[in-house]
TrEMBL record:
<dbReference type="GO" id="GO:0009425">
    <property type="term" value="C:bacterial-type flagellum basal body"/>
</dbReference>
<protein>
    <submittedName>
        <fullName>Flagellar biosynthesis protein FlgC</fullName>
    </submittedName>
</protein>
<keyword id="KW-0969">Cilium</keyword>
<dbReference type="InterPro" id="IPR053967">
    <property type="entry name" value="LlgE_F_G-like_D1"/>
</dbReference>
<dbReference type="Pfam" id="PF00460">
    <property type="entry name" value="Flg_bb_rod"/>
</dbReference>
<dbReference type="Pfam" id="PF22692">
    <property type="entry name" value="LlgE_F_G_D1"/>
</dbReference>
<dbReference type="GO" id="GO:0071978">
    <property type="term" value="P:bacterial-type flagellum-dependent swarming motility"/>
</dbReference>
<keyword id="KW-0966">Cell projection</keyword>
<dbReference type="Pfam" id="PF06429">
    <property type="entry name" value="Flg_bbr_C"/>
</dbReference>
<dbReference type="InterPro" id="IPR037925">
    <property type="entry name" value="FlgE/F/G-like"/>
</dbReference>
<comment type="similarity">
    <text>Belongs to the flagella basal body rod proteins family.</text>
</comment>
<feature type="domain" description="Flagellar basal-body/hook protein C-terminal">
    <location>
        <begin position="216"/>
        <end position="260"/>
    </location>
</feature>
<dbReference type="InterPro" id="IPR020013">
    <property type="entry name" value="Flagellar_FlgE/F/G"/>
</dbReference>
<dbReference type="InterPro" id="IPR001444">
    <property type="entry name" value="Flag_bb_rod_N"/>
</dbReference>
<dbReference type="InterPro" id="IPR019776">
    <property type="entry name" value="Flagellar_basal_body_rod_CS"/>
</dbReference>
<feature type="domain" description="Flagellar hook protein FlgE/F/G-like D1">
    <location>
        <begin position="109"/>
        <end position="167"/>
    </location>
</feature>
<feature type="domain" description="Flagellar basal body rod protein N-terminal">
    <location>
        <begin position="5"/>
        <end position="35"/>
    </location>
</feature>
Length: 266
């Protein structure tokens, strides 16, 4: 079998996966707080092929060789090693809605409570009030305060200062929970703008050394997806996939000829 089959096939799989990630980035270009994934390609290690326990050439008059013949090296292609979110600060835009909150500062996240009462982290501050007055995400997850409790309000006429303190009619309601990730790349994407971490929960940003942030009410952070670059990368990935596809087709034709023509002559 032609060794290039493996190289071409692995290239097609890697470029297909990369295209899927880029497409997902493009579809979230207007999602508040979305962090675009960046891909990393890596080559598989090369393999050295040798004829084991065979010292003769497989022809009619077998020639004996004084050593084990080396067939050659096999490049096993590439693979998509990982997809890393781009945690840089997104653009801040005004919405005029009091329930919208934007975080300025990297490595800090709002804390929310998922459906099984576990803490999750998000940069999407597109919040709303449910029928009971609790501050929730657009998908209905409860926003937590610094004590891990839900935040309940009576109206949307509340104020949030730069440190996340919530006041309503002059009364102190609480302080929005904000966590600090010293290494944001340790976070794991769960979808719907949520992140989790394996191990201990992230510390609060109010006490963490090096945490610098500011909360802006009636603003939202935009996506970090660069539309122009993403489109260019998608075209590049498509052309690379197409090139590998043509190589694979060429090998297929060679295999067909070897099986149908050369075999008949022999």
């Amino acid at each position: 079998m032609f060794k290039g089959f493996y190289t071409a096939a692995s290239g097609m799989i890697a470029q297909q996966r990369r295209t899927e990630i880029l497409t997902n980035n493009m579809s979230n270009v207007n999602t508040p707080g979305y962090k675009a994934d960046q891909t990393s390609m890596r080559a598989f290690p090369e393999m050295l092929l040798k004829r084991i326990d065979e010292t003769s050439i497989p022809v009619k008059n077998k020639f004996t060789l004084p050593f084990e013949p080396v067939v050659g090296t096999l490049n096993t292609g590439i693979y998509l090693q990982e997809a890393i979110p781009n945690f840089r600060q997104g653009d801040i835009r005004e919405t005029g809605l009091s329930t919208d909150l934007a975080l300025q500062g990297e490595s800090v996240f709002f804390t929310v409570q998922n459906t099984v009462n576990e803490t999750r982290y998000t940069r999407n501050g597109n919040f709303t009030l449910d029928p009971e007055g609790y501050l929730t995400t657009a998908s209905g997850l409860y926003v937590q305060d610094i004590e891990g409790e839900r935040i309940q309000l009576t109206t949307d006429q509340f104020k949030v200062d730069g440190e996340g303190r919530v006041t309503e009619n002059g009364a102190d309601i609480g302080q929005i929970g904000i966590a600090y990730a010293e290494d944001p790349n340790a976070l794991i994407k769960e979808g719907d703008g949520l992140y989790r971490i394996d191990g201990p929960a992230l510390p609060t940003a109010f006490d963490a050394e090096g945490a610098v942030f500011f909360v802006q009410q009636s603003f939202l952070e935009g996506s970090t997806t660069d539309t122009a670059r993403t489109m260019t990368d998608m075209l590049t990935a498509y052309r690379a996939f197409e090139a590998n596809q043509k190589v694979l087709m060429a090998y297929d034709r060679s295999m067909e000829k070897a099986a149908n023509e050369i075999g008949r002559v022999m």
